[in-house]
Amino acid sequence: MFSKMTKSLVIYSFICCSYFGMSQQVADSSLVLEIENPYHKKDKGPTLYIDEAHHNFHTKEGRFKPFSTFLENDGYVVKSMSNYDNLKPTEVLVISNAIHSKNIGNWQQPIYSAFNEQEINRLTEWVKNGGRLLIIADHMPFSGAANELANAFGFDFCDGFAQLSKPRNQPDIFSEDNDRLISSPLTDGTYGKAIKSVTTFTGSSFQIPSSATGILKFKKGDECAQPEIAWQFDDDTKAKDLEGHYQGAIMNFSKGKLAVFGEAAQFTAQTITNENGTFRFGFHSEDAPNNMEFLRNLMLWLSAKD
Q1: Which of 49, 54, 184, 228 would you label with 102, given CA atoms 20 to 30 Å apart?
Q2: E-state strands within 58-186
Q3: DSSP character at residue 227
Q4: 4-303: CATH number
Q5: Roughly what angle, to the nearest 10 degrees, separates helices 291-303 and 65-73?
Q6: Separation in Å, CA 80 to CA 1, 50, 56
Q7: Helix or strand (DSSP H, E) at 224
Q8: Is residue 218 within 8 Å of residue 164, measured between CB atoms?
């Protein structure tokens, strides 16, 4: 059943990210994204594609504009992609919040897979042969839409709304101090700068295969609320304890690399305006001081030819 802890935490999420305010959720175009010491010379870095073939909630020139601009300033060549025909080994593909056409404007069960069997097989083989894939699947319905693709690599999403157990309404902070940020090549300084916390803004959760390295880890008492209709919670809403589940993980997969994350706003900069006001959430939030460096570290790891 839906616990009192999760019910109180959803109030924060509803204010900032409610389904009824999604039309007002936009990229923060006022943000100046400067990098003092880029990792690559401008337009000389690795090529990175952003998937736009699956009714994606986040696109290169849309809600992921700050993501793409920030990485372009770090020297990456960022392009949108409408099919997978031209993908080459060692290139990076980002799939963020894909959704099936049947669930556009229909965020209720059943949630259909955004990917067909042929696409899943193609992506799996591409990663095996050296491809670099970043799967981002937010809270319901996006976690459900990506789950069959994630299953092909051994990951399994809870299609719901994941929340940390915390004393007051605030974003989810995974840190060394609360034992939810696990030391990994993305956080210990192996790739980029060492960081001690990462902040997310209401996402999903998943279980990982034994060969994966977990990074953002849930603990006992954290929950995944699973409503029948997104953002509609009541006393009968199911909730799953998230001990042993994650919101971020990486894995070497044969010759390629895979990263899976259960929250998208941490990698971009957005504002939401509704009857309660205008809210900033993403890597420009004062609650997320390390997210930009974490994104840089992640892309260094994904694109590295090691």
Answers
A1: 49
A2: 77-81, 92-96, 132-136, 156-163, 172-175
A3: -
A4: 3.40.50.880
A5: 70
A6: 41, 5, 11
A7: strand 223-226
A8: yes
Contact 106, 64 (CB under 8 A): no
Q: Is the pTM of this model over 0.85?
A: yes
Give CA–CA dist 175/216, Å, rounded.
Answer: 8
Burial class (CB in 10 A: 0-12, 13-18, 19+), 191: buried
What are the structural domain ranges in the chain? 4-303
Give the type of residue at 168: R
Cα–Cα distance for residue pair 90/133, rounded to 1 Å: 9
The beta strand positions in 14-72, using DSSP E, are 26-27, 47-51
Name the DSSP letter for residue 267: G
pLDDT in tens, 112-121: 999 999 999 9
Residue 215: phi and psi, rounded to 5, are -125, -55
Query: How are beta strands 77-81 and 47-51 bridged, if at all?
Result: parallel
- Lookup result for tokens 């109180």: 8
CA distance 219 to 242: 6
27-57: pLDDT as tens digits: 987 787 889 999 999 999 999 999 999 999 9
Residues 151-200 have pLDDT tens digits of 999 999 999 999 999 866 689 999 999 999 999 999 999 999 999 999 99
Q: Strand, helix or coil at 261?
A: strand
The SS3 assignment for 44 reads: coil
The two structure tokens encoding residue 282: 């993403």
Residues present in the chain in total? 306
Strands 256-261 and 246-253: antiparallel
